[in-house]
Design goal:
The complex is a heterodimer of chains A (about 525) and B (about 160).
Chain A (H helix, E strand, L loop, with lengths): L2 E4 L4 H5 L2 H14 L4 E4 L13 E5 L2 E5 L7 H6 L12 E4 L4 H4 L17 H6 L4 H7 L3 H11 L11 H10 L6 E6 L8 H8 L1 H15 L3 E6 L4 H17 L14 E6 L9 H8 L23 E5 H13 L1 H5 L2 E2 L2 E2 L1 E8 L5 E6 L4 H8 L9 E6 L6 E2 L10 H6 L8 E6 L4 H15 L5 H18 L4 H18 L3 H5 L1 H10 L14
Parallel strand pairs in A: 1-2, 6-7, 6-9, 7-8, 12-16
Antiparallel strand pairs in A: 1-3, 3-4, 4-5, 10-11, 12-13, 14-15, 14-16
Chain B lengths: L8 H11 L6 H12 L6 H9 L3 H10 L11 E6 L2 H4 L3 H12 L5 E2 L5 E6 L11 E3 L2 E3 L4 H12 L8
Parallel strand pairs in B: 1-3
Antiparallel strand pairs in B: 1-4, 2-3, 4-5
Helix pairs in contact in B: 1-2, 1-3, 3-4, 6-7
The chains are: A alpha/beta (about 525), B alpha+beta (about 160).
The structure holds flavin mononucleotide, iron/sulfur cluster and FE2/S2 (inorganic) cluster (FES) (2 copies).
Iron/sulfur cluster binds next to α18 and α20 of chain A.
């Protein structure tokens, strides 16, 4: 029997040469007379170890990483196919890698273990159990289960998922929709991508359950165009799910219907905002809508629509299969379940860290992240995406949960943690926040559209030491105007990173753009 | 993507007809055209407008709203550099400056030999292994200036088989 060797195929592994590693392994093993069975699994989410090669042994899977194509010969020489741990890249049993062993993988229980497109693998790891359970239950029952789990939206606003579903269930209509927000535009986030590339059936199952819960028969995954691989994987997974009878006109022979289609965005960050997303799905410019009406009442094409983030929907199969309590048993306070944190930026060991709510940032950045990649002192961290505050060291000991972060004007957002070492110029970062808003504003309201343009100019003048004090006052005022007068969080929250930079890193605004003290 | 392919109004019409019945068909149509032709030619606008019973101005409005869609032909390869925060923290600004200098173009421009169009992008979901860039449909991580130069050499060397 030939030995099974796993080489991940997610975007990160591929971006670091996984295809070449896979080809070399196959070729060189064959040349040595040991043909291997190559499995292109998903990623385990240990990005810094990618490409992470694994080998099946009688006592479980053994890992090697990060493997460059040029390491393949030496790894085979050292006995990789027998699980030998003599090579410096050998990591021992995969499940014992500290970074992974210390996590609580609920949503991401399967990633990296399975072949993402194999329905058999998915079924062998509890796949479709949630859907099968949902098919036996009344819609209200399903909604109650989701409510009882305490699941809150993972897209940023943390709204209780069950309550949103209740509104859609309670609104009569000839057609309802489930829309998955897969726009994942925040820098520093890639958990949605990992879920879609590495365990696509989980999202499909979650959406089908949502359909049953609110009596919607059509679903759309609105996927950002920056994720070409996720598009391929999802399209293929949807086709295979239909073939297996878990999607279509007669779900598992129940007579219930749910159809699903992937739609691509087109490089507009604002289309992650749910009403802008719906406009875009309708084929229009992504202008933000006034609320009310809520999308749950008048959403896509004016019909009641559930809009949920990938991870909110992906958590649902577990909740239906294992019960609300199993999910709610994790977490703290009103933040139940697990949070998918993503360690990104200047970090030594970046990757996905799924943990119950309540860990501190410091634990995350030091014990998991191992500090900065450059080895210089950590100076600032942006948690929750480009619209959230930069946090200085004094705020790294707060537990990560929605309420604690909200109290200090910070956000957990979609769980992105972007680390910066002490070479960062926080005035330059503040300028970027305004510039990003200027580029990505939908243009509907003045404080955002004009405010961000002015914001860039004002920060440029501050950095050029042109009337510095007066311009700093102007910048503070401008931030307040944007916060108070913007229609949506794009304009309304862009000031948060700027204000936090001003507050916690004022010195950076006192030096010239070239970094010298003036 | 084969951008050198000539487009014909019939080809555009066929793409539009294949998709116009979908709910919210405009973005799928624009994607199909750009995937096939590399850009959205001006001649496509009236065809789309007719098929969807919209005004040309509306169609133009949508095309111009989205950064992804372009109305002029790109070079043989499109290289996007991630400008977002996580990549900034590991040298994206330096990479960006290096890329512009090496290629002699700014964003949204194409090298004179029409090999490479340079674009900005805000996050490719590869934020633990930046700086990241996208070359056509493949994403590359931990791109140093030296790795960027090697990539450009690779892209500018045409394979021996004669290209169309
Ligand atoms: C500017 C802006 C960008 C957003 N981007 C995203 C996104 O990329 N993905 C996402 O799920 N939610 C995003 N949201 C939040 C959505 O509007 C919405 O709250 C979310 O999709 C609801 O799903 P959830 O309840 O499951 O979190 C964004 C909001 C704003 C204001
Ligand atoms: S705040 Fe900005 S993005 Fe939001 S609606 Fe206003 S202009 Fe559009
Ligand atoms: S709608 Fe929120 S500030 Fe006007
Ligand atoms: S910030 Fe560059 S890939 Fe995410």
């Amino acid at each position: 029997m030939s030995i099974r060797v796993y080489v991940p195929r997610d975007t990160t592994a591929l971006s670091l040469g996984a295809d070449t590693v896979a080809r070399r392994l196959e070729r060189e093993a064959a040349a040595r007379g040991y043909p291997i069975t190559l499995v292109r699994n998903g990623s385990r989410g240990l990005s810094w170890l990618e490409p992470l090669v694994e080998v099946d042994t009688p006592i479980g899977r053994f890992a090697y990483g990060p493997v460059a194509p040029s390491d393949v010969t030496a790894l085979l020489d050292s006995g990789l196919l027998e699980g030998s741990v003599s090579h410096p890249l050998a990591l021992g049993p995969t499940e014992d890698i500290d970074y992974l062993a210390r996590q609580q993988r609920l949503t991401f229980a399967r990633i990296g273990i399975t072949d993402p497109l194999s329905i058999d693998d998915y079924r062998a790891h509890n796949g479709f159990c949630g859907l099968e359970s949902a098919l036996q239950r009344e819609p209200q029952d399903i909604v109650e289960e989701v409510k009882a789990s305490g699941l809150r939206g993972r897209g940023g606003a943390a709204f209780p998922t069950g309550i949103k579903w209740q509104t859609v269930l309670d609104t009569p209509a000839d057609q309802k929709y489930i829309v998955c927000n897969a726009d994942e535009g925040d820098s520093g986030t890639f958990a949605d991508r990992l879920a879609m590339e590495c365990d696509p059936y989980m999202l499909i199952e979650g959406m089908a359950i949502a359909g049953l819960a609110v009596e919607a028969t059509q679903g759309y995954i609105y996927l950002r165009s920056e994720y070409p691989l996720a598009k391929q994987v999802l399209d293929e997974a949807i086709a295979r799910t239909e073939q297996a009878g878990y999607l279509g006109d007669n779900l598992c022979g129940s007579g219930r219907t749910f159809h699903l289609e992937v739609r691509l965005g087109a490089g507009a960050y604002i289309c992650g905002e749910e009403t802008s997303l719906l406009e875009s799905l309708e084929g229009k410019r992504g202008l933000v809508r006034f609320k009310p009406p809520l999308p749950a009442i008048e959403g896509l094409f004016g019909r009641p629509t559930v809009v949920n983030n990938v991870l909110s929907l992906a958590a649902v199969p577990f909740i239906l299969a294992e019960g609300a309590e199993a999910y709610a048993n994790h977490g703290m306070g009103r933040s139940r379940g697990t949070l998918a944190l993503q360690l990104a930026g200047n970090v030594k060991r970046g990757g996905l860290v799924e943990l119950a709510f309540g860990t501190t940032l410091r634990t995350l950045m030091e014990e998991f992240g191992g500090g900065t990649r450059t080895g210089k002192p950590l100076r600032a961290v942006q948690v929750g995406g480009p619209l959230c505050a930069y946090l200085p060291e004094s705020q790294w000991d707060m537990p990560l949960d929605y309420e604690t972060f909200a109290e200090v004007g910070a956000g957990v957002g979609h769980g992105g943690v972007v680390m910066f070492d002490d070479s960062v110029d926080m005035a330059e970062q503040a300028r970027f926040s305004m510039e990003f808003c200027k580029v990505e504003s939908c243009g509907k309201c003045t404080p955002c559209r004009i405010g961000s343009t002015r914001g860039v100019e004002v920060i440029d003048r501050i950095r050029a030491n042109d009337n510095r004090e007066a311009n700093l006052t102007l910048l503070h005022d401008l931030c307040e105007t944007m916060v108070d007068g913007s229609l949506c969080a794009m304009g309304g929250m862009t000031p948060f990173p700027v204000q936090s930079a001003l507050k916690h890193f004022p010195d950076d605004f006192q030096r010239a753009a070239n970094g010298d003290r003036s | 993507m084969n951008h050198s392919q000539k487009w014909a109004p019939q080809a555009i019409q066929a793409e539009v007809d294949a998709l116009k019945h979908k709910p919210g068909a405009l973005l799928p149509i624009l994607h199909a055209l750009q995937d096939r032709l590399g850009f959205i030619p001006e001649a496509a606008v009236p065809i789309i407008a007719d098929a969807l019973h919209q005004s040309r101005a509306e169609v133009h409005g949508v095309i111009s709203f989205y950064h992804h869609f372009r109305t002029t032909p790109p070079g043989r390869h499109v290289v996007q550099i991630c400008r977002a925060e996580a990549c900034q923290s590991v040298g994206a600004r330096q990479l960006e400056a290096h890329a512009k200098a090496r290629l002699g173009v700014d964003y949204h421009q194409t090298t004179p030999d029409r090999e490479i169009t340079l674009e900005a992008v805000y996050c490719l979901g590869n934020c633990a292994c930046g700086p990241s860039i996208r070359v056509d449909d493949s994403i590359r991580g931990r791109v140093t200036p030296e790795a960027f130069d090697a990539l450009v050499d690779e892209l500018q060397t045409r394979p021996l088989e004669v290209m169309g």
